[in-house]
Write a structure and sequence with these properties.
The chain has 582 residues and is mainly alpha-helical. The chain is built from 28 helices and no strands. Helix 1 runs antiparallel to helix 9, helix 11 packs parallel to helix 13 and helix 12 packs antiparallel against helix 13.
Length: 582
């Protein structure tokens, strides 16, 4: 993932793997395996006569001979099943995953996780989740990859397995760098690097160091800080040269090309990208999109517009084929739409404008999901872990004053109270949501509620005919949903109702039981409530976009009005609708 390359192992079939996978291979001591070669497929029944240790050693020796390695893994698995050893069964499925196609490997890893979920072994079940996260990433199933990486981190933290923790953090950061908050991703990458240097004796220090250099550089590129990115990429290049690792070297050269393109040094950027492009067969799936995006950016920067458009259309073609979202897509579609507008080709302009609208909506939805997932399942547990570690250290060393201890305890108590308040509030929101759904169901099955028309027209000091006319105009106004316009004003509505603003205001106050502003806002939020429940596509919009669609000028005013009417915020309402598949 992070050093986006695939590594050749010594076999006729290339085992395609990124730096992430290479680290996991190291975890399982696969590096240094040598291919012995076998003329015939091994007999599974005979293999089961070997000890588990001998089977693992034999598997390592034949790792590049997929057919025989799979036979050994199958023998190990059957032997473990016969002896009903759940941890060894998990390890058997894990070995089967290593020598299988990716889709099949994911299924084997699910079995690894199932059989090792309650294992006391320090590597399980986190190792299963880590491999599954990696495989899903290579399949570009990023949200599922993130979920598995988060779970892996939590198990690794519980087992105090530092190598797995750092690997999981890199995996989490990788998805966050794609769709998340880039500043937060950078902060987390730097924290991961700090954690790594606190454990320099780790067997995987070198590999994780390279992953950190790339991850930090990627964040700086996303944040439009190319000079900072180049500092880290150059360190990666130096490290690769020191290790005589050609593929890693070329990966960092390619990344440097991206940073140079952002910087506007187009000639150097193009040289770097074209030099590394010769090694494209080693790079992961997202490479083609990024290469064409940056080559298009360079061409446009050099005023070679037609060439740039050609590269951008390649990115569109990749997206249409794979339907995988990347952060570069909105800019690409914007430039394509602008190009065809200048060319006077309205049909192409309209196509790319629609693509722009669609991908922006989808990316916004992805970002919301990723931020929520990381905040709820990674950031919060991490902060709690840090607090627990602090308390433990204080108890062990007894090196600070009682006053400081009480201060920290006070902070923790406040944190717990805040957490309890949050949980209670969430419970209240959930209960309110359920009540709203029940009320909605009752309303649908009941006769419509009559309008409050009991007020005497004499109390209004307006003739009955005028009142009736105003109410009829308001009914039409509501039926045609004219309240969705942001330009609705009392004077304009009065004119449309063939009356004056004073009469209209009085009728709304006494017949509707609210002032004009509240009347309009409640119509709008009721519409949003119904439309969000009815239309799953509408839920994909950002809160700002929903607010605009419903006539509000800002997301904040919409959220406040929605909460005032229903007792929950629209973001929570949408989340519950999605979870309950309403």
């Amino acid at each position: 993932m992070y050093l986006e390359y695939l590594k050749h192992l010594n076999s006729s079939k290339c085992l395609q793997t990124s730096c992430m996978f290479r680290k996991l291979i190291l975890l399982l001591l696969f590096l240094g395996s040598t291919f012995q070669g076998y003329a015939q497929t091994m007999d599974v029944q005979k293999l089961q006569q070997n000890s588990y240790e001998d089977l693992i050693a034999l598997f390592d020796e034949t790792i590049n001979d997929t057919l025989n390695a799979k036979a050994i893994a199958r023998a190990y698995l059957q032997k473990a099943k016969r002896e009903n050893d759940s941890t060894k069964i998990a390890r058997g499925y894990q070995r089967m995953a290593y020598v299988s196609e990716i889709e099949e490997a994911v299924t084997y890893l699910d079995s690894t996780i199932t059989f090792s979920l309650h294992s006391e072994h320090p590597n399980f079940p986190a190792i299963g989740y880590l491999f599954k996260s990696y495989y899903l990433y290579t399949l570009e199933q990023y949200e599922e990859s993130l979920s598995n990486a988060v779970i892996a981190y939590q198990f690794a933290k519980r087992k105090q397995n530092i190598d797995q923790q750092i690997t999981a953090l890199h995996q989490i950061n990788g998805v966050n760098e794609l769709w998340g908050d880039y500043e937060k991703a950078l902060e987390t990458e730097l924290e991961t690097k700090k954690l790594l240097f606190q454990h320099k004796d780790s067997e995987l220090f070198a590999e994780n160091y390279l992953a950190s250099l790339e991850g930090i550089g990627n964040c700086y590129v996303r944040l439009n800080m190319p000079d900072s990115a180049l500092v880290y990429y150059k360190k990666g290049i130096a490290e690769a040269l020191h290790n005589k690792d050609t593929i890693t070297y070329q990966a960092f050269v390619s990344k440097s090309g991206n940073a140079l393109a952002v910087k506007g040094n187009y000639k150097a950027a193009k040289d770097s990208l074209q030099k590394a492009h010769e090694y494209k067969e080693y790079f992961i799936n997202s490479y083609e999109t990024q290469f064409n995006y940056y080559m298009g950016t360079i061409a446009m920067g050099q005023q070679h517009v037609a060439e740039g458009i050609k590269y951008f259309k390649k990115v569109d073609s990749i997206y249409q084929t794979k339907q995988v979202l990347y952060p570069e897509l909105p800019e690409i579609y914007d430039k394509l739409a602008g190009y065809y507008k200048a060319e006077g080709d309205q049909e192409e302009q309209l196509y790319y404008m629609q693509q722009l609208v669609d991908v922006v909506k989808l990316l916004d939805a992805k970002r919301v999901h990723v931020k929520s997932k990381i905040a709820e399942e990674y950031e919060i547990p991490r902060l709690l872990d840090e607090k627990n570690a602090l308390i433990s250290q204080l108890e062990k060393t007894n090196a600070i004053s009682r006053k400081t201890v009480w201060s920290i305890a006070g902070v923790l108590v406040i944190s717990v109270l805040v957490l309890l308040y949050y949980m209670r509030r969430q419970h209240g929101y959930k209960k309110r949501f359920q009540e709203l759904m029940a009320q909605q169901e009752v309303a649908q099955n009941s006769a419509p509620e009559a309008t409050n028309d009991t007020t005497d027209s004499q109390e209004l000091d307006i003739s009955e005919d005028i009142v009736a006319g105003i109410l009829k105009a308001l009914a039409l106004f509501e039926h045609e949903k004219q309240f969705l316009s942001q330009k609705v004003k009392l004077t304009a509505l009065a004119k449309a109702s063939n009356t004056n603003s004073t009469y209209l205001s009085k009728v709304i106050n006494l017949k509707k039981g609210k002032n004009f502003s509240t009347y309009i806002n409640e119509l709008r939020v009721q519409y949003s409530f119904n439309e969000l429940k009815r239309n799953p596509v509408f839920r994909k919009y950002t809160i700002k976009a929903i607010a605009a669609e419903c006539g509000f000028k800002s997301a904040e005013s919409f959220s406040k009005a929605f909460y005032k009417k229903f007792g929950i915020y629209p973001s929570y309402y949408i989340k519950q609708l999605e979870q309950n598949k309403v």
